[in-house]
Structure formats: C-alpha cells, structure tokens
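S.,

Sequence below, as promised.
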Amino acid sequence: MAGDTGHRQPLRFTVLGPVRAWRGAEQLNTGSPQQRALLAALLLRGGRTATAAELVDALWGDEPPHAALAALRTYASRLRKVFGPDADALISESGGYAMRVGVGGLDIDRAEQLAAEADKARQSGDRKSARTLINDALAVWGGEPLAGVPGPYADTQRTRLEEWRLSLVETRLDLDLEAGRHADTVSELTALTAAHPLRERLRELLMLALYRSGRQAEALAVYADTRRLLADELGVDPCADLAELQQRILQADADLAAPVNRDEDLPATGGHAFVRPAQLPATVSDFTGRAAFVGELSDQLATAEGRIMAVSAVAGIGGVGKTTLAVHVAHAARHHFPDGQLYVDLQGAGPSACDPEGILGSFLRALGIPDTAIPKGVEERSALYRSTLDGRRVLALLDNARDAAQVRPLLPGMEGCAALVTSRSRMVDLAGAHLVDLDVMSPEEALVLFTRIVGEERVGAERDAAMDVVAACGFLPLAIRIAASRLAARRTWTVSVLARKLADERRRLDELRAGDLAVKATFELGYGQLERSQARAFRLLGLADGPDISLAAAAAVLDLDTETTEELLESLVDTSLLESAAPGRYRYHDLVRLYARACAERDEQPPSERVAAMSRLLDFYLATAAGVYAIERPGDRLVDHLAPAERRGLAFPHRDAALDWLFTEANCLLACAQQSAAGGMLGRGADLLMAAVDLAESGANSRQYEMAASAISEAAHAARDARAEGRARTFLAHVRSLVGKFAESDEEAQRAMLLGLSVEDPVPTCRVPNQRGIIALYQQRYEDAEAYLQQAIEAFRADGNRPGEASALCNLSRVRLAMNRTGSAIELAQHGIDIYNSLGLTLRLANAKYALGLALTRAGHFADAFSQLTAALAIFHESRQPLWEGMAHYRLAEAHLAARRPAQAAGHAEQALGLRGIGGDWRRAIVLTVLGRALSGIGQTDRARACWQEALSIHEHLKTVEADEVRELLSPVAAA
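The prediction came back faster than expected:
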C-alpha cells in the first residue's frame, strides 16, 4: 500500500478560475456549486481549520438552511469519495474541517510564490526577470476566480483575488513603461481603463504611455476625463500622483520623455526596451600611425562627460583613412560610452546620400524603439532620438557625411553623448565641432602599414622597392592597402615586381593631387591589377543602382553561372574593391561604385555591353517577380501581359520563400525599375512595377515605388511610349491611392486610361476603372464608383481575368454598402470569395473577406463579421501587408462599435494606429476618428475630442470630404 501511495500522482486544485480538482491529467468531479463552495472555502484558508459555524456563514451568510450542518457533512463526505485514496486530504478537526494540500498543489500558492519572486527581482534591479515572473504569475489565472461558486465568502474572495490580479497587471505595465514599451501598452491600458474606469493607477499609466508615444493632447484629455468621472461618481478630485503627472506633462518635463530607470537587461525584441547598441565596424588589426590624430580625437571624446555634447569632424580626401581612424578611435573610447555606440555610413560621397529621416529610424530601432512608436518626419524622429538618449552616454559615429545639414538631425545633443563625423568636406558650418583635417600618411607610417600587411620578411629584403611602392601610392592608406593585399596574395611576386608594375605610367599614382583625382588614381591601382574576368565583373556590377546586389542578380548581370560568379566576386572582395555585405550579398563603397562606372564607360566596349548587362538584370528581376506574383495570385492574367523575359527567374519551393525574396530585394528591384527609365527599357521597367505591386500594397515601400513609377511615366511620355506610360501611370495611380492622394491618383488614372485605349492594352483598360471606382468610393461619389466598377468587371471578364473580376466585385460590394444596399453587398462579396477559393488564392481572398466583413457588420451579423475580418487580418499578417493589417484592425474597430462594444473597438483602433507611417495621413485620420468614437463610448470624452481634433487637422490639410463628419463630432450638439 505504501509503495502504491509513493507512485500515486498528488491532487492539484485551482481557485484562480473555476474551482477544480485534478489527479495528474484527470479532472475530478467536485460536485454541485455548494459543494465547490465548501472546497474553495477550505482551500483558501491555507490549511487552517474552519469551524462549522464559519463554513455555514461562508456558504449561506445570514440565511442558512435548517439542515445546514447536515449539508456540510454531506458535502465533505462526497468530496472524500471524489478524492479516493487521497480522502485524508480533507480532515475533520475541532468541530470543523481543513484541507491539507501538498507543495505546489494549489494554483494560488504558485501565483503568490511567483509574485514574491518578481518583487524580489525588481527590488534587486533585475526588471527583466521581474516582468517574466509576473507574467508567469498572471498565466496561472484560468478566468474569473471561483467562477460559478455561490456564497458571501466566495463573493468577498473573488473581489480580493481580482484586485490582486489587477495590481499584478499594473506592476507589469509599470515595468513595461520603465523599459520603454509605451507604444505597446496603450491598447491594453485603453481597454483596462474602460473596464475599471475608477482605477486611478491605470489612468496614470495610460497618460504616461500616451505622452511617451507623442500623443500629448490625448494624455491630457485622459486627466480631464478622469477628473470629471471622479467628480460625478464619487465627488472627489484625482489623486495627487495623477494631478502631478498632468502638471509635468503640461510643463513638458524632460524626465517624462524617456524612462527614468531604464531596464538595460530587457531585450529589444517584442517590446520597447532600451538596448545598448554596439554597431561599430571592426577595427583593423594592422592600424598604423596617426598617433597625433588618435590622441587629439581621444581627448575630445574623453571629455564628453559633463559637456552638452562633444562633436569631432574628420575631413579628408577619399582613401585617406578617415573611416579607419574614426573606427579605431571610437573603439578605444568605448569605455567612455557605456550605453552604446551607433554607426552609419551616410553615403555622402555618392549621388544618393542617405536621408536623415531613414537613418533616425534605424538609430531609434537600434536603441530599442519599435516601429510602431517611431514617428514620421525628421523633426519628430530627431526629438525622440534626443529624448531616448537623455541621461545616457552614447557615441554616434557618422561616417561619410555629405554636409552639415545631413549631420545636424543625427547629433545626440545630450550631455555625456558624443558624435564623431567623417566627411570629404570640412564642416566649418557645424557649430561647436572640433575640426580635424586628415592628410596622407608620412612615408614612415606608410611603410609600416605596407610591412604589416605584406610581412616583415618580404619587405625587409627589399626596403627601397617597398618605399617606391608606397610612394607610387601617394602615401594614401587605401591605395597602400590595395597594393599590399595584392602582393600578399601572390607569393611568387617580389616587392620589386610590384614596384615595376606601379612604375608604369598608366598605373602610376605619384601624380596625385587632391580631391576626386586622388580617389580615381587610388582605385586605378587595384583595377589595373585585376585579371580580365575580374575587371569585367567589377565594371558591370557597378552599373546597378541598388544598395547591394545578390549573388543571383550578379550572375544575371555577368551572364555567368552562380558558382563562377561567386568565385569572381569573392576574389574582388579579397582585393578590397568589393565588400561582402552578408552571405550571398555584395556591395561597393560608394566611391568605388563611381569609379567602377567610370571604368565601364571607358573600357566596356562596345557600349552595347553595358546596356546588355542592365537588360539582363532587369530580365532577372522581372522574371522572378512575375513568378512571385503568379504564386501569390494564381489565375491572374497580368503575368500573361508582361513583356517576355529572355532570362529565367528564380524558382521557389513555397510561398514564404517567394515573399522572402521579394521583400529582401525590394530596394534593389525598385532601383532597377527606376534605372530603366533612363536606360531605354521602359516597357520592361513598367512591367517590373506591375509584377512587384505587393511592395506598394505593403505600405513599407510605397514611397520608393511611387518614385520609380513616376520616373518611368515621365520618361515614357518623353519617349512617346504610350504602352509603357499607360502601365506606369496605372500603378502610379494605385500607389497614390494607397497613401490617400486621391485627387492625384484619379488624375493619373484618367491619363492611363486614355493611353491604354490608344494602344488597346488590357492592363490599364481593366485596372483603371477598378482603381477609379475605389477612388470615387473614398470620395463618396457612389454613382460614379458603381459605373466604374461595372466597367471594370466587364473588362476583366473580357480579358478572362477571374481574380481581377473578383477584385472588382468586392469593391462594388463596398460601393453598394455605401448606397445602403446591404443584401447586394453581401452577395457580391460572397461571389468574390467563391472565385478566389476556386483559384486557390490567399492574399486576394483576404480582400474579399474584408469586404464581406464590412457588409455583415452593416447587416448586424456581428459574429460572422468578426470571423471574416479576423480571418482577413491573419492573412494580411502572413502575407506581410502591414497597411492592410492596419485597415483590418480599423474595420474590426468599426464592427465592435456597431455591436456596442466600444472597449474592444478602442483596442483594435489602437493597434491600427500602431502601424505609424503606413498608409499615409488620411488613413491615420480615419482611424483616429473611429478611436474617438470608441473612447467616447467608454466615457473618455476628452480623449475622444483630442483624437477628433487631430483627425480634423489632417482632413483640413488634405481637403478631404471626411472633414465635415469630424466637425460634426466636435460640435457642441454632438457633445451634448
């Protein structure tokens, strides 16, 4: 018997949810509600004995039944039978009962232990562990505590346990805010304040989260809502903490802008926590000389503490070693900047210098700010950047800057921080900067660098020849490194052999003067020593405009197989003329790219070879993008209307791999499309835009897509290529509509339609009516929209394009819905779903479910509407379409509002707002309007008005029809 007991699984009990008993995985039948009430009363006493009188009072209060004591005995007897071999867990003692539960046998004990450990971790400063432990404690809850258990004792305990759970939630949210996760907490806090409107701590946390998310007006409105609610309900004012927070927000207290106690241990992924960036490139092991400059710059960085900001700007010609020096000094000074080091190549020497707005976005992400919390605009991002760095000591290495204007928004601007800038230009207009002019190396330093790369043994035997080599390099570090690397890789060469090669007039570098001529001569050294196949690869790959190039794309440019291409590219990496950006991806230094293009223009003969290389690249992108489009949209005829590509594209094993390729190659693909505008390949450039339309629809690449479409449109117009112009303007209209530029979109669509009709091109003649129908819908011109979409349906049917027909049907569904023809709207959306299902489409099916969800919402079929919109949301997320993800959240918010569920509506609207910068200002304004309605529905009227005020400001700026609707919401009549 004892042996059996030892192997028997112990009893487990839960009270943080329904009252249940378990033995292993088996749930035991705990009987009637009254019987469960007895069990709960005993479990919650922690093993202490409860008298019969206490238990009668716990179960029945002031009105017990006549046979209450007999009922207690019956319940206890039945529980013992349920416990079986563990019946002795329920003991009779001193005229009462008690439960003896083993260690870990009661869920509330586990939750209390985890909460205590969390408190201890937080007190010790380990906020990462504290947050994890609190989440573990909250995960123990299985629903409403003591669910379904009657009696006054259960009621009291339910209230106590719910209060405890809320306090744990508040602690976890407080930790989130300390870690900087403010944007992620707004949605949850909005829902919690709706459910617990009188809980001031939640209101305080919401105000802080909104303020740190850049929503000051809403934060102040939360205080106004709270003050009014407390006065109406309780006749009191807000607590002192809440009032103090309001004053600090009004005064723009700098300590509120970023967490005061930052959680340095919390990871950045999955939330908004400060991260210690360590972005400095590796310093070279053979760094040589520059002792005076190293000392000068190091002294400047060492004195950053106690100063507003230390800025040093290093200037010099290309190849003089600015970056190498700056990286070396930055590494040596890392201990002065314990909160991290940021790095960026600003590409200032090339034709397309980096935009400060994009760099600020990268810096903010590196510092732990999630995309959802990063605002648009240089000014807003720069302000958030400085706020994030406040109180920290961070070094920013801004490499290869164009000018002071590019640098200013990127300066930390905070005490204890520093910026180290390199540029080909002297930044005399960068206020407060310590300027350093870097010249070529001294002959002695140059020889030391050469010796470290080549080896003491080889150089020592031919010191004079080595001095001839470094002199021929003009003592430029980059030229010396290229020459030395070539020699080091050729063991059969002597230093004298290299010196004789450099003595050739065509390769000689001792005529270096200054500026670009020096850069060109420096690269000429390395280029002149390339083998024929290497030189060809170097020239042709430099023609592509993208930030880097994949191995497969490079193989297309060179018209070689990938194995041969990889061998060539790796050999160019060895010569320092090409960089390996990542496995399978390569890039040029911006100056090297310019030189490679100059070489192509000079040496790539006949010129048609250059055109052919770019044509092959365009073919590669077009064929591969068309394959991705076909995977995403089976049965869509657009791929049949594309210009035939002479090269085969990549094949993908599954849909995810295809999407991975498309979004990884987005910048390079769109750069190639835009480059086609100047390369006489307009037709295929326009077709590439069509095949890559997912890049526009995702919202993430809309701006670059629009630029490429505009460039091709204008170039095709100049070339009188009506077909290419019509197609480019069709998709230019599409992307402008996606970002809310409806008037511009409609203008482009009209031009595209005329061009399409002139050349009988089915692409514009089918797609333009569909697009104009959407525009007219948004502009509330419903009869026009209906006519356009009927035209689109007929055109798609004539072309045999069933997915296109389904798209127009779903858009027509939305128009009919706007015209109060709900039945027709449901029927049309369902028809679209049927077509998509028959073709096995995924992404387009989401659009149809989206349309059906809208119609079902209007019909009052809310459960079905939630189901359709939630399914659409999941597909959009899986298909990497953040714009439409946001729109699905927006429509779910509308549906919950219609179902009189404003708290849930507010949650979805907040998640839609979380995709900041996606979809343009118009979409932000319509989401703010719905959020305001939801907030008004949960009594947060001041915050609602703050949302509407911002929405109205946007609509008035854009001159959209929705402005009148928002004015109506803000009117005194509506408020009343």
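The two ends are 76 Å apart (CA to CA).

Coffee later?
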